[in-house]
């Protein structure tokens, strides 16, 4: 077990500083830039523009695992309090479960000690035990809870193959989820499909879920010409039509269809696949590339944060693969940085997903069924044959990121929601 000895504390502010009335509770927070950490940091900092905000979080457990952040610090107007928890390797399911348990207990206990009657508490659904502990703490203290749904449980566990669809544990999980949703003052979801799924489990008297999408970093991520891309030159694929899959490859991502499509396109020397990934299936993925002798597929580990723009621009089309059954369960937020980079998207997903609907409605890419290698290969062939259409879709994607999926837009939505709940806590 890793040491739980905390690093030295950093004072969070002057003694006469007003206490937080808005709280954000999340396993991941700055300096973690991985998905949930990035978005919850942005939400907290947006709320801090109107009200005193405190964050209750854990030490880094993902990309920054092993780094020890101060137990208390103040950043961008937010008071951060970190709890000591286990920080085992998240790619091991048993160790990840231990992390989830210690995080839920530690953060729930700190929430119970910190919040007061009338406070507003935002909590995210990951890890799945955390919001239950926070719901109990908020209710005991007379605070209002806002649940931010990043993944719908137990459905995500079923799609990942970790829970049988017909098991009594799934039915119990659905009842627990319904209880959790009913305890929230508001439920925020990332897409329309997720809203429909969550609404099925809400009591008739409850408020309908609110859709607030995540966002892309439109300031740091900008389109750049592929012929100037140093990564493509380094890999020797700057003259090819490049299809990229970038981001965590976990148990809910249908990467098999991408590899099968690469096999079908092996005789097309103009097409190359670039996979930049980590995650639970990264080892399996690398073994498959070697075993199948896929010379038209390159794999790279996750890029450094300061090279994100370079990597996102190292392609002609970006693919986002989801397993069948993911409708309403989750929304891959990597989509928004793809838009910001001005690249069209190959959505490998069911048509009812928010991912597929967004791509279709705005004409910024193609939608094909999960693991349909023939359809994936056909879409790639069509894209490679129409460079002008690809460029047009890329321009539309960038415009969409700026107009609809920016941090400023999401932050304004969260501030409005907070103000609706409590003028005293959130300010107006």
Summarize the structure.
The chain has 428 residues and is an alpha/beta fold. It has helices at 36-47, 93-114, 130-141, 155-159, 168-183, 192-199, 230-235, 255-264, 282-291, 308-312, 334-340, 354-361, 373-384, 387-404, 407-421, 423-426; strands at residues 22-26, 53-58, 72-75, 78-83, 120-124, 144-149, 186-189, 210-211, 241-246, 271-276, 297-300, 317-321, 345-348, 365-368. The chain contains 16 helices and 14 strands.
Could you walk me through the main structural features you see in this protein, from its secondary elements to its overall organization?
This protein has an 8-stranded mixed β-sheet with strand order 3-4-2-1-5-6-7-8, sandwiched between helices. Strands 11-10-9-12-13-14 form a 6-stranded parallel β-sheet, sandwiched between helices. It contains 16 helices and 14 strands. Residues 1-13 have low confidence and may be disordered. The protein is an alpha/beta fold. The protein has 2 domains: 22-215 and 406-426, 3-Layer(aba) Sandwich (Rossmann fold), CATH 3.40.50; 226-404, 3-Layer(aba) Sandwich (Rossmann fold), CATH 3.40.50.
């Amino acid at each position: 077990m890793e040491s739980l000895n905390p690093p030295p504390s950093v004072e969070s502010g002057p003694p006469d500083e007003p206490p937080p009335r808005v709280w954000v509770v999340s396993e991941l927070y700055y300096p973690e830039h991985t998905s949930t950490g990035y978005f919850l940091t942005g939400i907290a900092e947006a709320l801090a523009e109107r009200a005193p905000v405190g964050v209750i979080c854990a030490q880094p457990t993902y990309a920054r695992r092993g780094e020890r952040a101060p137990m208390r610090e103040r950043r961008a107007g937010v008071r951060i309090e970190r709890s000591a928890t286990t920080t085992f390797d998240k790619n091991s399911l048993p160790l990840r479960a231990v992390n989830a348990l210690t995080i839920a207990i530690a953060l729930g206990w700190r929430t119970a000690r910190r919040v007061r009657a009338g406070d507003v508490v935002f909590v995210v659904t990951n890890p799945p035990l955390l919001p239950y502990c926070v719901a109990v703490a908020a209710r005991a203290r007379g605070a209002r809870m806002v649940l931010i749904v990043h993944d719908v449980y137990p459905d995500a566990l079923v799609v990942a193959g970790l829970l049988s669809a017909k098991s009594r544990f799934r039915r119990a999980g659905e009842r627990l989820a319904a209880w959790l949703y009913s305890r929230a003052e508001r439920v925020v979801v990332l897409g329309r499909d997720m809203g429909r799924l969550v609404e099925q489990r809400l009591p008739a008297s409850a408020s309908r879920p609110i859709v607030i999408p995540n966002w892309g970093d439109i300031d740091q991520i900008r389109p750049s010409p592929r012929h100037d891309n140093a990564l493509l030159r380094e890999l020797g694929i700057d003259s090819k039509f490049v299809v990229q899959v970038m981001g965590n490859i976990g148990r809910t991502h249908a990467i098999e269809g991408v590899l099968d499509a690469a096999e079908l396109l092996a005789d097309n020397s103009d097409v190359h696949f670039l996979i930049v990934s980590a995650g639970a299936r990264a080892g399996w993925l690398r073994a498959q590339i070697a075993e199948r002798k896929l010379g038209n597929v390159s794999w790279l580990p996750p890029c450094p944060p300061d090279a994100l723009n370079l990597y996102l621009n190292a392609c002609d089309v970006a693919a986002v693969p989801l397993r069948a059954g993911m409708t309403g369960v989750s929304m891959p937020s990597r989509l928004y940085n793809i838009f910001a980079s001005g690249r069209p998207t190959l959505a490998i997903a069911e048509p009812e997903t928010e991912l597929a609907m967004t791509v279709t409605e705005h004409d910024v890419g193609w939608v094909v069924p999960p693991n349909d290698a023939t359809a994936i290969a056909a879409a790639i062939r069509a894209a490679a044959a129409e460079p002008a259409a690809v460029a047009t879709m890329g321009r539309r994607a960038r415009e969409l990121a700026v107009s609809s999926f920016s941090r400023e837009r999401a932050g304004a939505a969260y501030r409005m929601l907070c103000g609706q709940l409590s003028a005293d806590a959130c300010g107006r």
